[in-house]
Amino acid sequence: MKIATITLNPALDLTTSLATLVPGEVNLVEQASLRAAGKGINVAMVLRDLGCDVTVTGWLGEGNQAPFVELFQRKGLEDAFVRVRGETRINVKIAEQAGRVTDLNLPGLSIDEPAREALLAALDRLCLDHDWFVLAGSLPKGVEPEFARDLIVRLKARGKQVIFDCSGAALRVGLEGAPTLVKPNREELGQWAGRPIETDAEQRECAEALLAKGVDQVVVSDGSRGLLWFSREGVLRAVPPRMQVVSTVGAGDSLVAGLVYGLAAGLPKEETVRLATAASALAVSQVAVGFAGRDQLAPLMERVVITQLMTQGDAQ
Question: Please, what are the domains in the chain?
Answer without folding.
Answer: 1-140+154-166 (3.40.1190.20), 180-316 (3.40.1190.20)
